[in-house]
């Protein structure tokens, strides 16, 4: 398994994101899906990580560097592992890589939005120390969403 930053414009990324889009569309109505496009993932404040297994792109996760009146934080986006590669620890490894990336940049906290119909994802985040919080950034209350946060570096974090 190798995890590294990748170009969102790669054809294999498009294939993986299409699989993710289909999966999410089967779970939630369009207004509850907050998916980033390839254009969004190509912005200067976003880094997309790919996980390769035997040379094949098995999963990905992006992190957006953002700032609000409280602090600078990272937002996890597009964590997805292709079905053939699930249950191998890839999601956890991607999360570890993203968190290390943020700590190396002095980012205090990491946040995310996740759908409530994804028990595996919710369990992953809880096991990694994420706690529930209120909606943040552009998000508004959605009964199909859970909002979570993890403190990476010391300092006050408003929930």
State the gist of this model.
The protein is of the alpha+beta class and 159 residues long. The chain has helices spanning 11-27, 38-41, 90-104, 119-127; strands at residues 2-5, 46-53, 56-67, 72-81, 109-115, 131-132, 145-151.
Main attributes?
159 residues, alpha+beta, 4 helices, globular
Structural features, described:
The chain is α+β, with helices and mostly antiparallel strands and 159 residues long. Helix content is 28%, strand content 31%. It contains 4 helices and 7 strands, in the order βααβββαβαββ. The chain has a 7-stranded mixed sheet with strand order 1-2-3-4-5-7-6, with helices on both faces. Strand 2 and strand 3 form a beta hairpin. The longest helix is centred in the N-terminal third of the chain and has 17 residues. It starts with a strand and ends in an 8-residue tail after the last strand. 28% of the residues are buried.
Which shape, going by the Cα principal axes? Answer: globular
Radius of gyration over all CA atoms, rounded: 15 Å
Q: First CA to last CA: what distance?
A: 35 Å
Widest beta sheet: strand line-up? 1-2-3-4-5-7-6
Question: What does the largest sheet look like?
Answer: 7 strands, mixed
Strands, total number: 7
Helix coverage percent? 25-40%
Strand content: 25-35%
How many H/I helical runs?
4
Round the mean pLDDT to the nearest integer and report it: 94
Please provide the ordered H/E string of secondary-structure elements. EHHEEEHEHEE
Structure classification: alpha+beta
List the uncertain runs. none
């Amino acid at each position: 398994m190798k995890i590294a930053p990748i170009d969102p414009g790669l054809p294999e990324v498009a294939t993986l994101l299409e699989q993710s889009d289909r999966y999410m569309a089967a779970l939630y109505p369009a207004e509850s899906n907050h998916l980033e496009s390839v254009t969004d993932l190509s912005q200067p404040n976003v880094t997309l990580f790919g996980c390769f297994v035997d040379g094949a792109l098995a999963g990905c996760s992006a992190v957006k560097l953002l700032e609000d009146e409280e602090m600078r934080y990272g937002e996890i986006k597009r964590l997805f592992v292709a079905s053939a590669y699930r249950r191998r620890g890839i999601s956890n490894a991607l999360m570890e890589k993203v968190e290390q990336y943020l700590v190396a940049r002095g980012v205090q906290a990491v946040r995310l939005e996740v759908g409530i119909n994804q028990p595996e994802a919710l369990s992953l985040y809880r096991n990694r120390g994420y706690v529930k919080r209120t909606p943040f950034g552009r998000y508004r209350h959605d009964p199909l969403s859970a909002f979570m946060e993890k403190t990476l570096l010391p300092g006050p974090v408003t929930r």
